[in-house]
Automatic annotation (TrEMBL):
Disulfide bonds join 763-819. Its main location: membrane. Residues 885-960 are annotated as: Disordered. The gene is GLR2.8_2. It is found in: Membrane. This is Glutamate receptor.
Length: 960
């Protein structure tokens, strides 16, 4: 019986033989098809840094995963080089890879300055550079063989600006590294902040080689400034030292806010835990958002095992977004190589180096590089570990940014930011912010373990007090009065403006120490005025100005004003007239001179038109010349009291008279109403009703010394030689009392608050006239961009809405209701002007002119034989005038015989008493029925009865 053990050995040998045969036969048959194509890729990293070790592990796993999943014969062979944090070393490594290894692509270097060197070298060899460099100074437009496999630092600036705007901070300080890494972001960050109306008040530059004393000295300098919002753009090693010294300087306490950029936030695990726990609590940070997934969780476990194998002596390190970008970038590179390797040989063209003296001349050019760069410039990994990994035109496209708050040993997410939707607390699965939660963030713990949002600025406790400039001048102490203690030299300010300012400062939720500094406003015209006081702010001599300073367009170019705390406007005050009811000529006052003249002219014109229309047909308008001239004036003026008794016969005349009577009715009614008001209502009437009257009359005008009102008077065409300045209310009164002809003025032009005070003191003696020129009122002035302006403006509103404003007005200006005559209204003239009746006179003129023109045309047509003669013009005119002067013959009346169908005309002359039966016995007497059926046609008269029927018939026949 055979041994079972031997039998087993025989079978095993046969099985091994079969496997060996198959292994020999298969490669022989398909040797050309399965032979792997090797593609060399260079990897340049700074292996002295933790980040390089993280990326190194990710790159190894990316190549392993690609080879395991790919069925192609492409084999990516990595060649790692250490740049040793040196630009020259990085360039040397690139030359070595391109010349000796003949790599078809290079991933790296990490640093932007190194990448800038390597790009130029690779450009000669036409080899693409896939680098995680973040400097915005490196652009793919200028470097066609450059592919950025990380987000540039400029892409985060809008997210930072959105955070600053979210908390209404108006100024920030930027702390950045003095290196290409730090300086590249500054212009983009400044522009983004300006778009959200935020200023960069100061730029603090810190050298990477700065020692702790230099850093501490710079922080002390920042602490003396007002701004308390700091944006930090430093690498982790330098940032660690900065925050340690910030804690030492007391700048990690309540009232401060710190925002760190994406590199520091993403590499926060590389910062010492003790630094985070002691000196970075409450800091806000932003970093690219990496969505959670099962693939990322599994990869993180694999990465930890592989990292411990590669670097067993290192402490625990966390996987970060730069490692994930390296994984996705190498994966995208491998896919691009797989896509183009079949169309070109992965090798470089050799060049003749016999006459070349440098290594750069011996690099050659890659046959695969140009195809590879085209494939890499637009590539997408939808299942990338870092999220939606998309490279378009050589740039990695932005992803949402995550906003975190450093608390305890790590960070906590408080929100997100995207380019399209802005800030949001939550993020949808598609990477867009949730609309319902837009503009909201989670609970934030600020430095000093505070949950109150920092105000953003403070008056430094170690700095000087606010230097408040206050005007010192003679008079008008109700508004501002400055006194200096002779012993202590302490300056105190009182008055309406000072009390409002003190109340506003006390209403602020924080303390603002200040001191008043006097600024004298002299009486001389050539010395400084209020404009010079305001300019002291822009020259850094004062921190603010408090007083009766008017907000103007010119001053706002140099300073920022708060909201006004007084009424606005510029007007004039003039003396009042005596009681005009005692004036013997008051009956002429209701109408202005132009209206009187126009009315008189129309009376004469209407009388003339009526005379022309009635002269030939009406006995009342004939006779001697003196009678006719008198009739011209009498008829029209008698309509003023509706006392005319003359009968008019022409329809044209009736039309003219009807319109004119309506005009007279309106005029007399208006005159009566105005005169009644003047005689019955006691009121203060100004000596001058309009500023333009002052210009016409050449009157002198007064204004307040040092006020901008002088410039306004010049702009409205006042002669500068007619302007006189005064400082006190008493001087105002004396100048107005003397008058312009006696060394005084005809009016005082000033701002409404001063005029109110003046009228309240001299009640009933002066009155305000129009027009009122609008101004912005009094305001407090601060430097441009001062963070105090919004808070003080809100304080002004709070004070004005309360009872305090009424009390302070009562305190300094008294009770304005004590002077009922000074009603505060702008007085204008009560006299009727021509402008109010232009339409009425136009209607009367057109109607009368039309009637006169119609009469002339008819008259000339009737006398056309005269115009057709061969006589001279003078003879024709004489004949026409004689024909006009002759009385028009009255045609005979016509009657009808009863029973006849046609008209029978019988000429019967009518005498003045044609209706008398004794003179006309043949005419049948008029029955009452006949008179009722044909009523007599009356002339336009208010006193005469109707004319006889026969005359009416005659006139009707005449007009036919």
């Amino acid at each position: 019986m055979p041994n079972p053990r031997c039998h087993f050995l025989i079978l095993l040998m046969k099985f091994v033989s079969i496997i060996c045969f198959c292994h020999y036969i298969v490669p022989t048959r398909g040797e050309d098809e399965t032979k792997p194509v090797k593609v060399d890729v260079g990897i340049i990293l700074d292996f002295e840094t933790v980040l390089a070790k993280v990326m190194h592990t990710c790159i190894l796993l990316a190549l392993a995963d690609y080879h395991a999943a790919s069925r192609s014969a492409i084999r990516i062979v990595p060649h790692f080089r250490d740049s040793k944090k040196d630009d020259v070393e990085a360039a040397s490594a690139a030359i070595s890879l391109l010349k000796d290894v003949k790599v078809q692509a290079i991933f790296g270097p990490q640093m932007s300055t190194q990448t800038d060197f390597v790009i130029e070298i690779a450009k000669r060899a036409e080899v693409p550079i896939i680098s995680p460099a973040t400097s915005p100074l490196l652009t793919v437009e200028e470097h066609p063989y450059f592919i950025r496999a990380a987000l540039p630092s400029s892409s985060q600036t809008k997210a930072i600006a959105a955070i600053v705007s979210r908390f209404d901070w108006r100024e920030v300080v930027v702390i950045y590294e003095d290196s290409p890494y730090g300086t590249g972001i500054v212009p983009h960050l400044t522009d983004a902040l300006l778009e959200s109306s935020t200023l960069v008040s100061y730029r603090s530059v810190i050298s990477p080689s700065a020692n702790d004393d230099i850093i501490l000295r710079e922080l002390y300098k920042l602490n003396t400034m007002q701004t308390r919002i700091f944006v930090v753009h430093l690498q982790p090693s330098l940032a660690s030292r900065l925050f340690l010294k910030a804690e030492e300087a007391g700048m990690m306490s309540d009232g401060y806010a710190w925002i760190i950029t994406d590199v520091l936030t993403s590499l926060l695990d590389s910062v010492n835990r003790s630094v985070i726990e002691s000196s970075m609590q409450g800091v806000l940070g932003i970093k690219p958002y990496v969505p959670r997934s099962n693939e990322l969780t599994n990869f993180n476990k694999r990465w930890r095992r592989r990292f411990r194998q590669e670097y067993p002596d290192m402490d625990t390190v966390e996987l970060n977004v730069y490692g994930l970008w390296a994984y996705d970038g190498v994966t995208a590179l491998a896919k691009a190589v797989e896509k183009v390797a079949g169309t070109a040989t992965p090798k470089s063209k050799k060049v003749d180096t016999r006459d070349n003296s440098t290594d750069l001349d011996a690099l050659g050019t890659s046959e695969l590089g140009s195809l590879l760069i085209d494939s890499m410039q637009n590539i997408t990994l939808k299942t990338g570990l870092s999220g939606d990994f998309r490279i378009i035109n050589g740039e990695l496209q932005p992803s949402p940014y995550q906003i975190v708050n450093i608390i305890g040993k790590g960070e906590r997410s408080i929100g997100f930011w995207t380019e399209t939707d802005g800030i949001s607390y939550k993020l949808k699965m598609n990477g867009k912010t949730a609309k319902s939660n837009n503009k909201k963030l989670g609970t934030i713990f600020w430095p000093g373990e505070s949950n109150i949002v920092p105000r953003g600025w403070e008056i430094p406790t170690t700095g000087k007090k606010l230097r408040i400039g206050v005007p010192v001048k003679e008079g008008l102490e109700q508004f501002i009065k400055v006194e200096t203690d002779p012993k202590t030299k302490a300056v105190t300010a009182t008055g309406f403006c000072a009390d409002v300012f003190i109340e506003v400062i006390q209403s602020l939720p924080y303390a603002v120490p200040y001191e008043f500094i006097p600024f004298r406003i002299p009486d001389s015209h050539t010395n400084p005025d209020y404009d010079h006081l305001v300019y002291k702010i822009s020259s850094k001599e004062y921190d603010a100005v408090v007083g009766d300073v008017t907000i103007s367009e010119n001053r706002s170019k140099y300073v920022d004003f708060t909201l006004p705390f007084t009424e606005s406007g510029i007007s004039a005050v003039v003396p009042v007239k005596d009681d005009e009811r005692k004036n013997a000529w008051i009956f002429l006052k209701p109408l202005q001179r132009e209206l009187w003249i126009t009315t008189g002219a129309f009376f004469v014109f209407i009388g003339f038109v009526v005379w022309v229309l009635e002269h030939r047909v009406n006995e009342e308008f004939r006779g001697p010349k003196r009678k006719q001239v008198g009739m011209v004036f009498w008829f029209s003026f008698s309509t003023l009291v509706f006392a005319h008794k003359e009968r008019v016969t022409s329809n044209l005349t009736r039309f003219v008279v009807i319109v004119w009577v309506f005009v007279v009715l309106v005029l007399t009614s208006s005159y009566t109403a105005s005169l009644t008001s003047m005689l019955t209502v006691q009121q203060l009437q100004p000596t001058i009703t309009d500023l333009n009257d002052l210009i016409k009359n050449g009157e002198y005008v007064g204004y307040q010394e040092g006020s901008f009102v002088k410039d306004i008077l010049k702009r409205i065409r006042f002669d500068s030689t007619k302007l006189r300045s005064y400082s006190t209310l008493e001087e105002y009164n004396a100048a107005l009392s003397r008058g312009s002809k006696n060394g005084g003025v005809g009016a005082i032009v000033d701002e409404l608050p001063y005029l109110r005070l003046f009228l309240n003191k001299y009640c009933g003696k002066y009155i305000m006239i129009g027009p009122t020129y609008k101004t912005a009122g009094f305001g407090f002035a601060f430097p441009k961009g001062s963070p105090l302006v919004p808070d003080v403006s809100r304080g002004v509103l709070k004070v004005m809405e309360g009872e305090f404003m009424n009390n302070i007005i009562q305190k300094w200006f008294g009770n304005e209701t004590d002077c009922p005559e000074k009603d505060g209204m702008v007085i204008t003239s009560d006299r009727l002007k021509l402008d109010s009746f232009k339409g009425l006179f136009l209607i009367a003129g057109v109607s009368a002119g039309s009637a006169l023109l119609t009469f002339l045309l008819i008259f000339l047509y009737q006398n056309r034989e005269i115009l057709a003669t061969d006589d001279s013009i003078w003879q024709k005119l004489s004949a026409i005038a004689k024909a006009f002067d002759d009385e028009k013959e009255k045609p005979n009346s016509k009657s009808e015989k009863p029973g006849e169908g046609n008209e029978s005309q019988t000429t019967t002359p009518f005498a003045a008493s044609a209706a008398s039966p004794e003179i006309s016995p043949n005419l049948p007497s008029q029955s009452p029925e006949t008179r009722t059926a044909s009523p007599p046609d009356e002339g336009f008269s208010t006193t005469e009865p109707g004319t006889p029927l026969e005359e009416t018939i005659t006139e009707a026949k005449e007009e036919r």
